[in-house]
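On clarity, I found the account of how folds are encoded harder to follow than it need be. Since the whole study asks how a given chain folds, the encoding of that fold should be made plain. For the editor and my fellow referees, an illustration may be useful. An entry of this sort, consisting of the sequence and the corresponding backbone structure tokens, reads as follows:

:::
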Amino acid sequence: MKFVYYNDTGREVGIHPATKEHGTECDMSTILPLEERTFILPNNTYPWVKMWDYGEEHGLSILVSPQQEDN
């Protein structure tokens, strides 16, 4: 599955390392304001997304983690 995030925050967004560790493929560089980032998740999963705000000094961070449907 492909998930696209658009950074309209006006701030830089870092990508949490667990994004890659959980199996999501993406460019792990900082997402700049007004930039799109594509996250590729394993087949038959959906994105679970969490964003943290560490304040102006430390910035924003996003985690995109693949989740499987419970049947």
User: Anything to note?
Assistant: The chain has a mean pLDDT of 95. The first strand starts at residue 2 and ends at 6. The chain has one domain: 2-68. Residues 18-21 form the longest helix (4 residues).
